[in-house]
Write a structure and sequence with these properties.
The chain has helices at about 5-30, 45-55, 70-80, 85-105, 115-130, 135-150, 150-160. It is an all-alpha fold and about 180 residues long.
Amino acid sequence: MNLLSRREAIKKVAIMVGGTIALPDILKAWESPAIENKFFAFSPQEEALIAEVANVIVPDTDTPGAKAAGVHRFMMKVIADCLDAPDRQKLMDGLTEIDQYARQNKGNGFVQCSDTDRIEVLTHFEKEYHDSKKGAWREIKSLVVTGYFTSEIGCTQALRYEPVPGSYDGAYPYKKGDRAWA
C-alpha cells in the first residue's frame, strides 16, 4: 500500500484550494470580450459588421437571431484568441470584402444597407463560394452557426433542450417541423 507523506498531502491540498480560489478568475477570462485581447483588437466598425453579417445568416424569426444571442462576441473571441495570424487575416479579409462589395454594388457599407440589400450581398458570396470554393465565406458561416447553436438562446430556444436527458430512444417519434435536440 502506497501512503502519501504529510508533505505530499499538504502540497495536493494547497493545489486544490488554490485552483478553487482561482476558478472564478479563469471563468471571467472566458467571458471577457475579445476586444480586450492585447494582440488583436476590433474597431467598433468591425464589430458592427460582424454582428450584422451574423444576424443576416441567422436572423430573428420566432426565436431570437444571432445578434440577440451575442454571436458576434463569440466570433470576435474565436478570431482574436483561437486563430493563427494567416487564418485570422483570411477571415478579416473576407469580412472586408463583404463590406467593399456592398459599397461598390449597393452604394453603402454592409452595416448601412437595407435588409434586402444585405441578403443580396451575402447571397452573392454564397454563390461565389459555391462556384469557386475560395475565400473565407465558409469559415464565416461556420463561426456564426457554431456560435448560435452553442449559445444559450440557440440551445434552449432554437433547439429542443432537455437539461437532464433520459435514456436513448432510437425510435423516438418525429413530427415534421420538430426542432432538433440540443
